[in-house]
Automatic annotation (TrEMBL):
Keywords: Cell membrane, GTP-binding, Hydrolase, Membrane, Nucleotide-binding, Protein biosynthesis. Pfam families: EFG_C, EFG_III, GTP_EFTU, GTP_EFTU_D2, LepA_C. This is Elongation factor 4. One of its GO terms (molecular function) is guanosine tetraphosphate binding. The gene is lepA. The lineage of its organism: Bacteria, Pseudomonadati, Pseudomonadota, Alphaproteobacteria, Rhodobacterales. It comes from Roseovarius atlanticus. PANTHER family: TRANSLATION FACTOR GUF1 HOMOLOG, CHLOROPLASTIC, TRANSLATION FACTOR GUF1-RELATED. GO terms for biological process: positive regulation of translation.
Amino acid sequence: TPLSHIRNFSIVAHIDHGKSTLADRLIQATDTVPDRDMKEQLLDAMDIERERGITIKANTVRIEYTALDGEDYVLNLIDTPGHVDFAYEVSRSMRAVEGSLLVVDSTQGVEAQTLANVYQAIDADHEIVPVFNKIDLPASDISRVAEQVEDVIGIDASGAIPVSAKTGEGIREVLEAIVKLLPPPKGTRDAPLKAMLVDSKYDQYLGVICIVRIIDGVLKKGDRIRMMKTGGTYDVDDIGVYRPSMKPVKELGPGEIGYLNASIKQVRDTRVGDTITLEKNQTPEPLPGFNPSQPVVFCGLFPVDSAEFEDLRDAIEKLALNDASFSYEMESSTALGFGFRCGFLGLLHLEVVRDRIEREYDIELITTAPSVIYHVYMKDGTQIDLHNPADMPDPSTVAHVEEPRIKATILVPDEFLGDVLKLCQDRRGIQMDLTYAGSRAMAVYDLPLNEVVFDFYDRLKSVTRGYASFDYQLEGYREDNLVKMSVLVNDEPVDALSMMVHRDRAEMRGRAMCEKLKDLIPRHMFKIPIQAAIGGKVIARETLSALRKDVTAKCYGGDASRKRKLLDKQKAGKKKMRQFGKVDIPQEAFISALKMD
Ligand code: GDP
Ligand code: MG
């Protein structure tokens, strides 16, 4: 295909504004997939993605479209994850295309992820076509959304296309706009091969599949390629395009997007953003480098049943083959035994990995409280990266501690603004900006990441009844008065419950934690003290009183079936508990105890 007849684009949107549905309609309107094979959300392949309605890996599809000018065009859509955890993945796939459709739900308006994603598109120098979706709904208000797009984002909305991805209205106009308004890619056919590795994923049958965008030159089956950053060389077994199923092609030329398969063993051997060239005829100038995405949230994963440790290792190693952004190392905890300390891009990423281990590998897990990486500066001049609060050195040897901060953008209807400001204040936030657009406020806060990783988003949703949207980016490290708080149950320290806290809030957090644990730990035959401490100093204390009588005898008298049910339930509950000294602590305690209400 000549460059003039190729268009490469992505779709940017806030979650649920209709990105996947629009992609489905574009695929359908161009007969890319026979109607009988059409199912909803074609591009969201993984199970968990479907269930949670999120796209985790970049996907691509090639659409062939005969435009009203009578010419045949090839349109390549790269679908990217829309969630804040995967912002980095969005940024790199954006660089593989020249334009974006900006989808805004016309019943909702611009939201925080609309902003975050469109700024990525602007950064990548995209031509942007606004698309106002859901016009079939009575609440749709196009002029209000147009005003918001112009005021808040600052791009011209006069050419915005009203559509209903549900009914198909306006889809033809979108296809025409892609052809007319988005620029064709640039590139030189007879230059040495220069291709961008956009993403790679693991396929059970085929091994590692790379999504590539050809910048210059031509890629063919049988070529010996070199990954310029990793230095790996491979023979190309197969190349092709996604329609959206894999379809082999003879060659991929400049401007084209497709896949390559070269017997690469694991995703870890590939570096997204790397430049692919020919071993024999290398491009003199690799693409500007990308920073690999770094895990920012860490937690421990331990098997509930310690006999399953090897199974857990196996599961984690397999998952890691397909997910280079996930890190792990073995960890042993006096309380929980052997497990892994794992690093994730964010909380959603953590949940996805944890769910997959539990579901696909059938291993029940204890997840310890998520933590960020602290920079601990020692009095002897050395510095350590603290991934686990349990490893915090003795305070007398520490000079100071720095924590990661974020810039958070929150959009919220006026009526909830007060609650949002209070929430940010409670989480040690510093207000950077507060502006209004229509009946909505946009608050920008500098917040400690640690105060956000745990349950900030849940709290935000609940105080605003779901009407706020939130996005953040990492800003860097700053010093604060941070200390390690330990928790002792029955006078034994439970290392998995220790956490880093701000000194001024330690008493409050300690009290809340002890109260929570008192509710979460079942009563035993003896009295159990629960304490929070900094260094050797106890800052909060609760006592769980002893159990007096057999509960079942007392509550249920002679009803045998109810009694059995209760015992079964206790047994099931037991499985999810771990013993700490003489005390059983249920697994949900590790997460619940840290929630701040
Ligand atoms: P994504 O998160 O941006 O990929 O959004 P989806 O495509 O998954 O859409 C979110 C929800 O909005 C789904 O329930 C869709 O069926 C619905 N939806 C998408 N487009 C339209 C539309 O044009 N009209 C209506 N009424 N619903 C839509
Ligand atoms: Mg989607």
